[in-house]
């Protein structure tokens, strides 16, 4: 198992487990943009200018990056705050809200639960129905649970299903919020979506005190090593998040890399164009290999299930592929999923072909 610390993408554990050097794995267990960081970032690192940042404290308020993000998304700078990855901001948001009860819709990103528990919150869980492909649609049970919760935390889109909650459901949840209740939307993967602007609640969060939107910059710009994310909320909430955050939490390299990354429109268009083609291609090949694909996904990862009749479990398949240098996510570890669920990042075609061929050989061989 490679999820000893709760997540995919842990090459050190993979290396220790499967006996291969870290650099020899093709990693489908973490969901990064397979094009790697934008060229401007790579160039800047190669030019050596980064060294000049070492001897000074970073800007404690990340002013340049916040200004750029505010301009890019059309919100006020006072509504944006930067964090050491979206992971830090999930934690800070829940600590600021200190909700007595937090509602999550399983299966979902494990940090929602962990952050809620750390913030002293009681957890309420709604199970998205497997028979409906884990769709989160307007339904009485979810809305009732939302009515009785102080914070409602949803992946938008969700991890590991890759699906967006039904927009009507979100509207219904928002419309029913009483004072003191907050809807937290984690849009860590929304920038991979071609209609990002249409679906995003980012601008609403800048004017609605009962909505908080979290964004990651590590996935779309393929820079998980530096940790970078941002939150959009009304200025009063941003101020409370700032007050709880450790000073200089976002280092100077992360700030500069964020500034260089977000201006590259060609990189963004190229990434979205690739996913438009590659996701359906991979889904079809996975079905041919005998897997059940969870439909309706919009992200750069696919949730799939190994049929029980094959005799394979996700854990067994992860081990078999890991020994061949291919890392997949054992999604059975997500509460709400079964022993056959796996999650696969969509990568570039040649890697995806290697994955499909290894899957076919392993499952059918
Ligand atoms: C749904 C979701 N939200 C947030 C995060 C955290 O992202 P970051 O790398 O910016 O901390 C992850 C990381 O896997 C994620 O899957």
TrEMBL record:
Q: Which reaction does it catalyse?
A: O-phospho-L-threonine + H(+) = (R)-1-aminopropan-2-yl phosphate + CO2
Q: In which pathway does it act?
A: Cofactor biosynthesis; adenosylcobalamin biosynthesis
Q: Which residues form the Aminotransferase class I/classII large domain?
A: 25-359
Keywords annotated in UniProt: Cobalamin biosynthesis, Lyase, Pyridoxal phosphate
User: Which metal ions or organic cofactors does this protein require, according to UniProt?
Assistant: pyridoxal 5'-phosphate
MF terms in GO: threonine-phosphate decarboxylase activity
Give the source's domain of life in one word. Bacteria
**Its EC number(s):** 4.1.1.81
Alphabetical list of Pfam families matching this protein: Aminotran_1_2
Task: Tell me the InterPro entries matching this sequence.
Answer: Aminotransferase_I/II_large, CobD, NHTrfase_class1_PyrdxlP-BS, PyrdxlP-dep_Trfase, PyrdxlP-dep_Trfase_major, PyrdxlP-dep_Trfase_small
Free-text function comment from the UniProt entry: Decarboxylates L-threonine-O-3-phosphate to yield (R)-1-amino-2-propanol O-2-phosphate, the precursor for the linkage between the nucleotide loop and the corrin ring in cobalamin.
Q: What is this protein called?
A: threonine-phosphate decarboxylase
């Amino acid at each position: 198992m490679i999820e000893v610390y709760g997540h995919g993408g842990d090459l050190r554990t993979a290396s220790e487990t499967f006996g291969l050097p870290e650099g020899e794995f093709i990693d489908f267990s973490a969901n990064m943009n397979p094009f790697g960081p934008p060229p401007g970032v790579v160039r800047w690192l190669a030019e050596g200018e980064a060294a000049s940042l070492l001897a000074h404290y970073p800007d404690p308020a990340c002013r340049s990056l916040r200004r750029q993000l505010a301009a890019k998304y059309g919100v006020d700078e006072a509504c944006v705050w930067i964090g050491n990855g979206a992971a830090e901001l999930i934690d800070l948001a829940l600590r600021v809200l200190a909700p007595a009860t937090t509602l999550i819709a399983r299966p979902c990103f494990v940090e929602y639960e962990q952050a809620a528990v750390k913030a002293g919150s009681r957890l309420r869980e709604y199970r998205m129905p497997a028979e409906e492909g884990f769709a989160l649609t307007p339904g009485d049970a979810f809305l009732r649970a939302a009515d009785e919760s102080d914070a409602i935390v949803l992946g938008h889109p969700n991890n590991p299903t890759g699906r967006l909650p039904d927009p009507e459901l979100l509207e219904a949840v928002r419309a029913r919020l009483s004072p003191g209740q907050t809807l937290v939307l984690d849009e860590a993967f929304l920038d991979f979506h071609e209609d990002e602007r249409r679906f995003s609640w980012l601008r609403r969060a800048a004017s609605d005190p009962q909505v908080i939107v979290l964004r990651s910059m590590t996935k779309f710009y393929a820079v998980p090593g530096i940790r970078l994310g941002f939150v959009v909320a009304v200025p009063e909430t941003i101020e409370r998040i700032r007050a709880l955050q450790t000073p200089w939490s976002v280092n100077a390299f992360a700030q500069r890399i964020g500034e260089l990354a977000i201006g590259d429109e060609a990189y963004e268009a190229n990434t979205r164009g690739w996913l438009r083609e590659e996701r359906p291609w991979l889904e079809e090949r996975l079905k041919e290999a005998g897997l059940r694909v969870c439909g309706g996904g919009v992200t750069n990862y696919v949730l799939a299930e190994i049929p029980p009749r094959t005799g394979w479990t996700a854990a067994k398949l992860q081990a078999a592929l890991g020994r061949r240098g291919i890392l997949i996510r054992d999604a059975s570890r997500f509460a709400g999923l079964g022993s056959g669920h796996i999650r696969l990042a969509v990568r570039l075609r040649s890697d995806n072909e290697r994955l499909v061929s290894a899957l076919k050989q392993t499952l059918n061989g």
